[in-house]
Amino acid sequence: MGKASRKKQEQRARKASSVDVMDGGDPRARGEEALGRLLRSNTPGKISLAGAYAWGYAALGLAQQEGTDPDWHQEIDPLDILFLGTAWPKGFRDELEFANARDAWLRLLRGTVHGKGVQHFIREAVSVSEELGLPVDDVELMLALTGRLEAAGLDQRQLPRRLLPEVALQDCRAALGPSLDLRLPTPRRM
Asked: Who's near 145: CB < 8 A, 6+ residues apart?
């Protein structure tokens, strides 16, 4: 690791600790503040990993508020929220389409700097879970995680458009499945 990278990490750590002191160390308050900042600084199509998580979190809240959230939203975890935010405002027909698209997208990121960012994201989620003593799919943890993503530097690098699901998975059969109007031929008798 170079001197510049070490210096950035030290600055982020100082920023995170100063935020802890200012808000009394309340992870929920820190998460709410970070959520607002991330939503303002990221827009669909021009988004960082931290911004994608914030948009996914907001999309879940909006769906719950409108009463349009599908049952599978109850089983969602932080990595799912991250993907949901990268794809938003696109919706998914069902949990299978969502899961296939998420897995295909994660495979595309593997071996890239953004894939390393996803690994860092996962480490942060596990770390918050251990610190708060909550499971990773707990609502309180998911909000607290939002506050940690800025300090972790996951708001610094924007995902290129070519790696956003709308573009990256455009022709991915694993993500889209067969066409809805596909007609299979009638089997011939032998």
From this structure: 31, 53, 78, 124, 125, 128
